[in-house]
Amino acid sequence: MMSTEELVKITATKTVDARGTACPGPLLEAKKAIGTIKPGDIMEVLSSDEGTKADLPKWCAKQGHEYLGTIEISGYFRIFMRKH
Amino acid sequence: MCLGLFTGSVDKLTAAGVILGGAAAMDMKVDIYVLMQGARAFKKDIGDDAGKLNMAENAALKEEFLQSLKNLKVKTWVEFFKEAKSITDVKIHICGLAGKIWGGEKLEDFIGIVDDIVGIGAYITSAQEADVNLFI
What we know:
The complex is a heterodimer. Chain A is of the alpha+beta class. Chain A has one domain (4-82): Translation Initiation Factor IF3 (2-Layer Sandwich). Helix content of chain A is 32%, strand content 30%. Chain A is built from three helices and four strands; from the N terminus they run αβαβαββ. In chain A, 36% of the residues are buried. By secondary structure, chain B is an alpha/beta fold. Chain B has a single domain (2-135), classed as DsrEFH-like (Hypothetical Protein Ychn, Chain: A, 3-Layer(aba) Sandwich). In chain B, 43% of the residues lie in helices and 15% in strands. Chain B contains six helices and five strands, in the order E-H-E-H-H-H-E-H-E-H-E. In chain B, helix 1 packs parallel to helix 4. The longest helix of chain B is centred in the N-terminal third of the chain and has 16 residues, at 10-25. Classes of the chains: A alpha+beta, B alpha/beta. Chains A and B meet through helix 2 and helix 3 of A and helix 1 of B.
């Protein structure tokens, strides 16, 4: 896990904007997008769905990706992960 | 995952669709066995026509439920099933008896996402082998 200070400095290879979609939208967007990047690359998912910040860390653990952390901004979350 | 899908109600079918979405995101193999009322919903003349489906609970809330899903840009249950099939290995099997009850004897009587028509033995075997079993 990274600190907020470290997370804000990350430039993700892929940013998925899933804001405005409800569960399981952000999870499915993440699933589709991770296939487009290389192992070791970082992906950032933007979601305004409260459930996503619990969902994506569990999804990362199941799929073997490294969950790096979440930054909470007013109205949405920035969730970072490194592809396995 | 093995899902026994008895329901033909739009609220429960939507719940099944959301669960399928989660399973697809996790690359799970899913076998769906469509039983009784469920087979009616998969008929070509029903499918996404929510007007022909009831609610499993509190029928008076149907309009509010459907309007809310629309406002939240949530997919229809058929779209959820289609999307899950496009991501992971999801097979939809119609129980032969259930199909016959609603006048569906052949595969072409059902919407395109249905894979085959099977007997109950296939469901039991799949349920025995699956790591997750759900009945909706």
